[in-house]
Each structure stands twice: as structure tokens, then as C-alpha cells.
Specification:
This protein starts with 6 loop residues before the first helix and ends with a strand. It has 201 residues and is α+β, with helices and mostly antiparallel strands. The strands form two sheets. Strands 1, 2, 3, 4, 5, 6, 7 and 10 form an eight-stranded mixed sheet that branches. It contains five helices and ten strands; from the N terminus they run αββαβββββαβαβαβ. The protein has helices at 7-12, 33-36, 132-137, 144-155, 181-191; strands at 19-25, 28-29, 37-47, 60-70, 81-89, 92-108, 113-119, 142-143, 171-172, 196-197. It is globular, with a radius of gyration of 21 Å.
């Protein structure tokens, strides 16, 4: 059976693709970013729920990024930061999203070189989550799906997980407000035989 490639795939696999960086600060595209960007790195790392750095279902996969830019006005750097890579196909750039990031740290040197360290929305789950109000509101028990939705709402992150993930209807009446939302998410992922990740959009 023949495999049909799109024009985009043909260019990507040709080894001679022409690429262009596109960055939007708070949904506003920054002009001439290719001319001022010295370095861009994208990495994924494990945020363990159990103290181990080994990969397991109970881990949260976080995407991080770093940009080094020259002569940029720091006041223009507003999150969310949307990073895309464009590939020239038939005279036009086709853009693919790398990720949407939140600012962790910004530093500038004397020669106007600015380094921006970023993380995806997994950073928004680094708060102590208290399930008590939810459990009391629901009469003493809350399902895993109820807890997941509540954590995402408090983190201002949209959950697109359906109500039928494995063990979604298991219920609990216990809570611990010293545990971070990220650890709760990791536990729920493990209980459903899944891995917690953040989608770009």
C-alpha cells in the first residue's frame, strides 16, 4: 500500500526545509523575531509525584522552553507566550505550534541580551489543593472526575478529558490541603493508567 505524503511532509523530509520562528506575546506576534533570537531550546522533563525521577504513570510530563533575545523591550514580554515553527511550502509558511508557555524567569545582561525561562501550564498546578469544600458540597464524597475538574478550574486550565476516563467515577471523602494540585493530577493519571500532559491549546 502506497503512503501519500502532504506537501508539508515532503518538504520536512527533504532535508532542505526553510524554517521561520514565530512568537506571540499575549497573542500579539513579535516582528522580526528571527533577527533578534540567538537561541531557543525546548525540553520535556518529568515532574515526579513520588519523589522519583524515573518515568512512571504517576508522573506529570512538563514542557519547558528558553529564549535568548537581543535588544527587546522587556515590557513587550507578556504571557502567555506562543511559540510556533513555520516551514516554507509552495511559497508560504505553514506553522506548527511548539507550545504555549508561562514565564518562570526573565533576566537581562548589560549588552541587552534577555533570557526568558518558561514552562507550560503544568506550572499552574503548583499550589496546595484543598478538596474539602468540594467534598462537603457534594455530600461527603467526590469522584475523581469532580476533583480533576475542580483542580483545573482553580488552576485556570481547561480540562478536555471526557467523563469516561478509567476510574473517573471512583469516589473519595478524604483530602489533604498540603498536597499540590500537580501531585493530585499525577495520582489521578496513575489511577486511570495514563500520563498527565499539557496540550498546547
Amino acid at each position: 500500500m502506497a503512503i501519500i505524503q502532504s506537501n508539508y511532509e515532503k518538504v520536512i523530509y527533504s532535508g532542505g526545509a526553510t524554517n521561520k520562528l514565530r512568537i506571540k506575546f499575549n497573542n500579539v506576534e513579535y516582528e522580526n523575531i528571527d533577527e533578534i533570537c540567538e537561541l531557543m531550546t525546548i525540553t520535556s522533563r518529568i515532574l515526579p509525584s513520588n519523589g522519583s525521577s524515573r518515568f512512571s504513570l504517576g508522573n506529570f510530563i512538563s514542557k519547558e522552553a528558553k529564549l535568548i533575545l537581543h535588544n527587546i523591550d522587556i515590557s513587550d514580554i507578556i504571557e502567555p507566550i506562543n511559540i510556533e515553527i513555520g516551514t516554507l511550502v509552495n511559497g508560504n509558511y505553514e506553522y506548527k505550534q511548539i507550545g504555549v508557555f508561562n514565564i518562570k524567569e526573565i533576566s537581562t545582561t548589560n549588552n541587552n541580551k534577555t533570557t526568558i525561562s518558561m514552562s507550560d501550564n503544568s506550572i499552574k498546578f503548583d499550589f496546595n489543593y484543598n478538596a474539602r469544600p468540594l467534598i462537603e458540597e457534594l455530600g461527603g464524597l467526590a469522584s475523581y472526575k469532580d476533583i480533576l475538574d475542580d483542580i483545573c478550574e482553580k488552576a485556570n486550565v481547561i480540562s478536555d478529558i471526557s467523563s469516561t476516563f478509567h476510574n473517573y467515577d471512583m469516589a473519595t471523602g478524604s483530602y489533604n490541603n498540603t498536597i499540590k494540585g500537580r501531585k493530585y493530577i499525577s495520582y489521578l493519571a496513575e489511577q486511570s493508567g495514563a500520563i498527565a500532559v499539557i496540550k498546547p491549546n
